[in-house]
């Protein structure tokens, strides 16, 4: 009987603590994304300041950690930098971005079509 009471007390505690993994996973994912951004900046030969400016939403510490790791790796393996793609001029989008915008616009039109038909009646 005593073990049932202990189990009844531990069961809710286990459910509460199981959510901690999901929170930690989200935090670690953001950190890993920041490190990936920093590593890609280093591999393409971009400076840290340029990388910070281009990725203002990402934590600078994560970008720096990724940049530093990639720098050490590239020096150890004697890897050369890859030329970064040319900067997109303001007012013009890449073909992929234009396709993406067209798809979003058509999705909005399709979603609003039933609403417009109901209001016309």
UniProtKB/TrEMBL annotation:
What is this protein identified as? Lipoprotein
- Organism the protein comes from: Deefgea tanakiae
Lineage, top ranks:
Bacteria, Pseudomonadati, Pseudomonadota, Betaproteobacteria, Neisseriales
């Amino acid at each position: 009987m005593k073990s049932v009471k202990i189990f009844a007390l531990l069961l809710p505690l286990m459910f509460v603590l199981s959510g901690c993994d999901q929170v930690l996973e989200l935090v670690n994912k953001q950190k890993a994304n920041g490190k990936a951004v920093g590593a890609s900046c280093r591999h393409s030969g971009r400076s840290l300041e340029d990388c910070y400016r281009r990725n203002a939403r990402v934590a600078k510490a994560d970008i720096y950690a990724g940049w530093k790791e990639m720098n050490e790796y590239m020096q150890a393996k004697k890897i050369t930098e890859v030329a970064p793609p040319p900067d997109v001029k303001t007012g013009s989008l890449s073909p992929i971005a234009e396709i993406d915008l067209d798809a979003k616009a058509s999705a909005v039109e399709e979603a609003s079509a039933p609403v417009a038909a109901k209001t016309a009646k």
